[in-house]
Amino acid sequence: MTSSVADLVAPQIPYLRRFARALTGSQDRGDAYVVATLEALVADQRSFRRDLLPRPALYHTFVKVWGAVPINQVPEPVEAGLGGIVDRRIETLTPLPRQAFLLAALEEFPTSEIAEILGTSEDEVRRLVDVAGAEIAEQITAQVLIIEDEPLIALDIEGIVSDLGHDVVGIATTRTEAGDLARRTNPGLVLADIQLADGSSGIDAVNDILQGADMPVIFITAYPERLLTGERAEPTFLITKPFKPEMVKAVISQALFFDVRAGGRPRGAAA
């Protein structure tokens, strides 16, 4: 990879890692696809589209790699670089409408850039996002615990969660409160701020909760680039502050999507 391409790509990697793990539901698998993307750029520097801004150009490369590498991490035979990658629909793990929705809601790309990333038309992008929205409306319902010490942000999250049809079982402001609430309510999803006002850590609070139960967790932070460094274990699902309702909706949807695959309950199913 030339230094110029490396300089363009480097600031975008934390955000690509966030997107990749949201698609795969796993830090390890998501990072594996990011590594494969960077390797593809090393093998074929011409694959980096100079006609696009650096961020959509990097995501475009990622989408090409995603379409060529099965989720079991056994690559299909391809020629070196992107020139030999089969250009097929990226449905190995996550349906295309959901990818378009995440690009719009989580990554906040405009429709025109999503069309370039996915290699389709803007009309098709809008259709895909609408399809994903309909699927989300039919998704599962969950009991949600919120760990957030800022009252206004907590209320915002509570409103978004409730509007999606989920039940908020409580709002904790400290590590101790979070543990107590989790034991009493047995939530199916946790949304946790990373830094709490009393000096305790949302990460520690979640680790406490996961000692006695297994559930998807979404972390909230104003500084994703500080967290997604690849130097230690990191959250699979991440919301950045300030957030928009669509971003929260997208991440909750994806977290519960993988929980359903692991045996979660569909909306309306008996507990």
The major β-sheet equals: 5 strands, parallel
Number of domains: 3
CATH topology of the largest domain: Rossmann fold
The fraction of residues in strands falls at 5-15%
> What's the CATH class label of the largest domain?
Alpha Beta
The total strand number stands at 5
* Class computed from helices, strands and strand pairing: alpha/beta
The CATH architecture of the largest domain can be named as: 3-Layer(aba) Sandwich
Write out the CATH superfamily name of the largest domain. Response regulator
Shape: globular
Average pLDDT number: 81
Description:
The chain has 271 residues and is an alpha/beta fold. It has three domains: 1-89, PhyR, sigma-like (SL) domain (Butyryl-CoA Dehydrogenase, subunit A, domain 3); 95-138, no CATH class; 140-261, Rossmann fold, CATH 3.40.50.2300. It is built from twelve helices and five strands. It has a five-stranded parallel sheet, sandwiched between helices. The longest helix has 17 residues, at 27-43.
